[in-house]
Design goal:
The protein is 78% helix and 0% strand. The protein is mostly helical and 65 residues long. The chain is elongated, with a radius of gyration of 18 Å.
Length: 65
């Protein structure tokens, strides 16, 4: 574990539950964006994402309930 990570963990421990939840939402969004960037750099997922977005724009999808 790096020193920076250890310091971050200590800081997180001092947060209130509400602040931890807020941090979780921020991290979740940052991770999702980083993963999407990785996917878009790979040709196969890039093509799949493009296809799905086109289908969605054409309303060519099913809604599962």
């Amino acid at each position: 574990m790096t020193q920076a990570l250890s310091i971050a963990i200590e800081s997180i421990s001092a947060l209130t539950l509400g602040e931890k939840h807020q941090l979780w939402l921020i991290l979740d969004e940052a991770i999702a964006q980083a993963e999407e960037s990785d996917w878009l750099e790979d040709d196969e997922p890039k093509a799949e994402i493009h296809q799905v977005r086109e289908e969605y724009q054409k309303n060519d999808y099913l809604t599962l309930v």
